Amino acid sequence: MGKLALAAKITHVPSMYLSELDGPNKGCRQAAIDGHIEIGRRCRELGVDTVVVFDVHWLVNSEYHINCGPKFSGCYTSNELPHFIKNMDYAYPGNPELGHLIAKEANAMGVATRAHSDTTLELEYGTLVPMRYMNQDQHFKVVSVSGWCVWHDLATSAKFGLAVRRAIEEHYDGTVAVFASGSLSHHFADNGTAARYMNKVYDPFLEQMDRRVVGMWEKGEWAEFCQMLPMYNEKCWGEGGMHDTAMLLGALGWDRYDQPAEVVTPYFGSSGTGQINAVFPVTPLKD
Length: 287
Fold this sequence. Notes:
With 287 residues, the chain is of the alpha/beta class. It has 8 helices and 10 strands. It has helices at residues 15-18, 30-45, 96-108, 125-134, 154-171, 204-219, 222-235, 243-252; strands at residues 3-10, 50-60, 64-67, 71-76, 88-93, 113-116, 141-149, 175-181, 262-270, 273-280. The mean pLDDT is 97.
């Protein structure tokens, strides 16, 4: 049936939008923007028709949720950082069919999930920022998944990721990319110190942990990483509980995945947080 063609862990820092604007921070996130453009180019080469984004800016308290409206459009201002992202226009086609297929498969696997196609749900900036640079021409349909799962466990999120993979390969007639849209360590600069940390990680401990993790990814040490993910998330203030990362790895085979990640945008600090764009090669799931 369908194909999962590309998987990636991506940044969505709002300073990417700020980087476009005239002022002292113009160009500060060009490397991250270029990384998104490159990932979008690869998706086009692979024939991707739909992008599924695990978005850690969509908070949910119960079950897993999929925003699969038929189309999305609006003018977005971040309620979290309105001085970074304001009045950002967007318009993308959606994919209700794929969203409902994912929900059906997840529920069949025992992961309570709801797909929302007849909805006024809007997209969050964990989806909007990457799509701005990958999908300005509306080439890809977009499906957004709640990735800030407050009362969920990472093992269930990995199982949800596997459901996404099965829905694509067993029930969908098309080609899909999946993105975990979230940071590595995620301790923001304390109030009043933002300027000092604009291009830095909050603490050397966090940066060293992040760099060690990136090294593990580049070596394909996934069994070890999956085992340490809960503690890494806890000690390094994982964004959204790092459920986006668990979903991504679940779609790739979790601790049985063995491919080295390809870093597209090297690790960088942003407002205290650790960020990266990295592609994870998609291989057949192991029995």
